[in-house]
Structure to design on (121 residues):
């Protein structure tokens, strides 16, 4: 059974930084894209950043220049470094990964449980 476990959320003042981590575990054959999404109260879930298996990344316009996504393939882990945080970054952040299990011939999307990020003004 594949699991994604996130850590690193919390409360920070505007202008501060946080680093989120998400580790995948289980019967994993390979991981394709890994990504971070967020969902603020009353809003739809949105893509924040995505990174491919070879390290190519893209970002939502609202976080470009402030957030950096990276991954450690040996650890099946994706990170999100968030700098210059703003109150509008407040949301539950979710990890997402396209994972092929050893018992399957194709990849499926898996989600973490979410971690709260709150930025105070």
């Amino acid at each position: 059974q594949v699991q994604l476990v996130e850590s690193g959320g919390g409360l920070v003042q505007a202008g501060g930084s946080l680093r989120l981590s998400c580790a995948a575990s289980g019967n994993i054959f390979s991981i394709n894209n890994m990504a971070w999404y967020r969902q603020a109260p009353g809003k739809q879930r949105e893509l924040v950043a995505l990174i491919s298996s070879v390290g190519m990344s893209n970002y939502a316009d609202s976080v470009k220049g402030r957030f950096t996504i990276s991954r450690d393939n040996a650890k099946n882990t994706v990170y999100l470094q968030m700098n210059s945080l703003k109150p509008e970054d407040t949301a539950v952040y979710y990890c997402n990964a396209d994972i092929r299990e050893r018992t399957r011939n194709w990849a499926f999307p898996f989600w973490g449980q979410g971690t709260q990020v709150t930025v105070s003004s």
Notes: The chain has no helices and eleven strands. The longest strand covers residues 28-39.
